[in-house]
Amino acid sequence: MGSDESRYRCPLRIVNRLGLHARAAARFATAAGEYEAEVTVHFGGHSANGKSIMGLMMLAAGQGSDLELVIEGADAEQALESIQALVADGFGEAD
């Protein structure tokens, strides 16, 4: 990791009623894909590339699940802020 890169580790709680299902996973992966930083999501002893819809869905994280987000790269802080806001907003889903 070069001196211009950052690494962040942060907890995330899934708040939307349906959890990290297809649409939510797609929104997460799209948000993560807007950045060069590597995004990894850990849950239940498994990890997934945060830019992979299928990988995120395979985590099977339901409402109330506590995930760990690890982001590394030059734009990691911006990626973290974007993903935190998306998850806190319940992926824009009105429940």
UniProtKB/TrEMBL annotation:
<dbReference type="InterPro" id="IPR000032">
    <property type="entry name" value="HPr-like"/>
</dbReference>
<dbReference type="InterPro" id="IPR050399">
    <property type="entry name" value="HPr"/>
</dbReference>
<dbReference type="Pfam" id="PF00381">
    <property type="entry name" value="PTS-HPr"/>
</dbReference>
<keyword id="KW-0963">Cytoplasm</keyword>
<dbReference type="InterPro" id="IPR001020">
    <property type="entry name" value="PTS_HPr_His_P_site"/>
</dbReference>
<dbReference type="GO" id="GO:0009401">
    <property type="term" value="P:phosphoenolpyruvate-dependent sugar phosphotransferase system"/>
</dbReference>
<dbReference type="GO" id="GO:0005737">
    <property type="term" value="C:cytoplasm"/>
</dbReference>
<dbReference type="InterPro" id="IPR035895">
    <property type="entry name" value="HPr-like_sf"/>
</dbReference>
<feature type="domain" description="HPr">
    <location>
        <begin position="7"/>
        <end position="94"/>
    </location>
</feature>
<protein>
    <recommendedName>
        <fullName>HPr domain-containing protein</fullName>
    </recommendedName>
</protein>
<keyword id="KW-0598">Phosphotransferase system</keyword>
<comment type="similarity">
    <text>Belongs to the HPr family.</text>
</comment>
